[in-house]
Design goal:
Elements (H helix, E strand, L loop, with lengths): L3 H11 L8 E3 L15 E11 L1 H8 L3 E15 L5 H19 L3 E6 L3 E3 L4 E15 L10
Parallel strand pairs: 1-2
Antiparallel strand pairs: 2-3, 3-6, 4-6, 5-6
Length: about 150
């Protein structure tokens, strides 16, 4: 399943000491976020993936493929904590991601500036983490059959 890795990563993040007391969840559906947010919140979900066949050719025969995936990471901090809390929460989230075993595969980490989100009643910082990892191909041979 496409979302399995994001679900697993969120579960791991929720257990990390760096994010104790933080609500870790899937991205909010439009118009479905709680108002106002009362706790620091991290949403993480798949932002897209691309295959890198040139890098993964040596393992293709074993049914593996190299995939580069982006994890969209949004950090929210209650109004009373201020925008700086979002930046600190993003750094803590990146540290937690590294502890989840993602560090060796990290390709890029980026984030914007914290801004007040009136819909959430909280400060919001949008970020993303790009990682490369091997995944098992569901159909190792395209078009093969008896």
């Amino acid at each position: 399943m496409e979302q399995d890795w994001a679900d697993e990563l969120r579960a791991q993040l929720a257990q990390r000491a760096e994010l104790a007391g933080v609500d870790v969840r899937a991205p909010f559906l439009p118009g479905r976020q709680p108002f106002p947010l009362k706790r620091e919140t991290v949403t993480a979900g798949e932002g897209g993936r691309t295959e890198s066949p040139a890098l993964g050719n040596s393992l293709a025969a074993d049914g593996l493929r190299l995939v580069e995936a982006e994890l969209a990471v949004d950090c929210y901090a209650p109004r009373q904590l201020g925008g700086g809390a979002c930046a600190k929460l993003f750094r803590r989230t990146c540290a937690a991601l590294a502890q989840c075993g993602l560090a060796p595969s990290l390709r890029a980490v980026r984030c914007g500036r914290p801004e007040f989100d009136a819909q959430a009643g909280a400060f919001h910082l949008a970020g993303a983490v790009t990682a490369a990892f091997y995944t098992r191909q569901e159909n190792a041979e395209e078009g093969g059959g008896a």
